[in-house]
Design a protein that fits this description.
The complex is a heterodimer. In chain A, about 25% of the residues lie in helices and about 20% in strands. Chain A is built from 2 helices and 4 strands. Chain B is an alpha/beta fold. Chain B is about 40% helix and about 15% strand. Chain B has 16 helices and 13 strands. Chain B is elongated. The chains are: A alpha+beta, B alpha/beta. Chains A and B meet through helix 1 of A and strand 5, strand 6, strand 7 and strand 8 of B.
Amino acid sequence: MSVKIILFGKLAEIVGGSVSVDNVADTDSLINALHNDYPEFAKTKYVIAVDKQVIKENTVLNNKSTVALLPPFSGG
Amino acid sequence: MIDQNLYERYHRQIILPEFGEVGQQKLLKAKVLVIGAGGLGCPALQYLAAAGVGTIGIVDDDVVALNNLHRQVLYSVNDIGLSKAERATHILQQLNPDINIISYNERLENQNALMLFEEFDIIIDGTDNFSTRYMINDACVLLNKPLVYGAISQFEGQVSVFNPQPLKGGNEAVNYRDLFPDPPKEGEVLNCAEAGVLGVLPGIIGTMMANETIKLITGIGEPLVNQLLTYNALNNQVYLLNLSARTETRSLIPKDEKAFLQMNYVWLCSSPVQQSEIDPDIFNDMIAKGNVDVIDVREPHEMPAVNEFKHLKIPLAQLADNNSLIKSENVIAFCQSGKRSIQAAKILSGIFGDSKKIYSLRGGIIEWKKQKQTV
């Protein structure tokens, strides 16, 4: 199972391209896998959205899920 | 009934069936406060003034600089060194002499925020730092004021309408802290001065903020209530996120005016020393970027010696007396293990206040050398 991942801001910059993570059942395992592959993620603040809804707790994913990771911007 | 001159000025929007003379009347009666007359504020102000928002307040304590002009297209070279709030007021008043524009050439602080916000119907956040953004959000929640939010970084922007009043459909109003409960720590996000920004991006996002404001005032269309729009200027991707209110948020916001006045937003977003500790890789990035003084606060005899990067040698005990050696905007102290450099950062924060950003290398030079070997 592979979910679609959309990254914004600094997170997209860290990855520098598209990213895919296989065999993750929920957002916690997805985030763990991403932090493993990209240690700099751990130093970045971001919110997680599953299918365009911002979540605060571990959420079950299916193969149609889209997960977006969005850091805050301060610039004006 | 609007007089002939005004009818002529706003004709092209009055003839829109959804807008009409009623929409124009609503705009003329509206009072909008724009905080920050910079990248986002300028385009928002231009369109709001042109559209006929009857009263516009402009808060900014900054002056125009040459490196603003690539994105703050309201200003010209003749404005360099002059107050943004005053110049913007003057220029916009020429665009539309029929509206009332009030310039507040001052910094938004806890002490003036609530009084100022009470005079206006809608607040627009075009600021460039987290401490002011959190303060504006909290003040809007306390006073039940709608907040039109926009923020940018490099090629991407975010827009939303927080805390709308009244809210349709029985939903609870979402505010900025429902999305990002706490401010990020130093180094967790980039700012424009460090990361850069494409000049046209704030033009797009600021114009969207003006659009959301006009929709809120006139009641047309669907403002970005309980939604966050993200826009990417490189690939034109627009992403809409749905937001919902969280019960925990309320506990983060000062409960009354007194508590609000006591909040230290600057501290919340940066100053505490434990937040200013940086890891070796961020340390390396900062050295590579420049504009940083690195200081070895160990005693002269201490090993290992450091010759991998340029640095000053000022032992901790002599730091306060020798602070004139420190010239750069960013300062990183290091020692053996990262403990004395925290002390050094505290001392330097006390001396330089907000004028410099002070950091301490976590784990000290020992950790730095260790990580260097493993790379």
